[in-house]
Inverse folding.
């Protein structure tokens, strides 16, 4: 019975590790290519022709989230399109003026899966979106007025495999102490059972 308790605990720990395991991911920091047009410098993704990198480390309005460089586009119809649709995308966006900025996530038919309004004058505002069916094909920054001159993004990441979701993820910050408590109870009961103590 004690062995059974240990096995139960090991299975709980294995489940917890499965929750926190990293999925295959692309990461674009924009620090590993020269300042200028992005063009076809990155694999697995196509940036529309107006996308450029910029050394913004001295900029107050557009500080990088990583390294010295960020990316921006002067196009109204700007697009970041993955060769194969992905399951999750995250990025950081900075915007300067009190215009409307929206980050839109599109499927391969340009259908809107999700869009989020960026708060005014944000600096490295985090946005993430998950597509459980893996149909996220394109990321686009939209807005009104001269929005296309007043935003940058950094640290664009995309998951090409689904992110594992199980109930334990909801208590992740407490997962370690919870697992220890469950193991303590399970092994304790198993030891009592092993000693022939009957629990009425
Ligand atoms: Ca960067």
């Amino acid at each position: 019975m004690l062995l059974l308790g240990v096995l139960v605990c090991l299975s709980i720990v294995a489940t917890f590790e499965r929750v926190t395991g990293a999925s295959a991911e692309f990461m674009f920091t924009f620090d590993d290519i020269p300042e200028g047009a992005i063009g076809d410098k990155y694999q697995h993704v196509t940036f529309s022709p107006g996308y450029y990198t910029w050394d913004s480390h001295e900029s107050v309005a557009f500080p990088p989230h990583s390294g010295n460089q960020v990316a921006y586009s002067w196009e109204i119809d700007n697009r970041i399109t993955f060769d194969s649709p992905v399951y999750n995308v995250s990025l950081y966006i900075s915007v300067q003026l009190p215009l409307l900025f929206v980050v839109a996530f599109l499927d391969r038919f340009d259908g809107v899966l999700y869009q989020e309004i960026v708060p005014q004058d944000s600096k490295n505002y985090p946005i993430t979106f998950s597509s459980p069916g893996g149909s996220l094909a394109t990321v686009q920054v939209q807005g009104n007025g001269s929005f296309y001159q007043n935003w940058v993004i950094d640290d664009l990441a995309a998951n090409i495999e689904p992110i594992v979701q199980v109930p334990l993820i909801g208590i992740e910050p407490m997962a370690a102490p919870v697992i220890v408590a469950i193991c303590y109870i399970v092994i304790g009961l198993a030891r009592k059972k092993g000693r022939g103590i009957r629990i009425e």
Summary: The first strand starts at residue 25 and ends at 28. The chain has two helices and twelve strands.
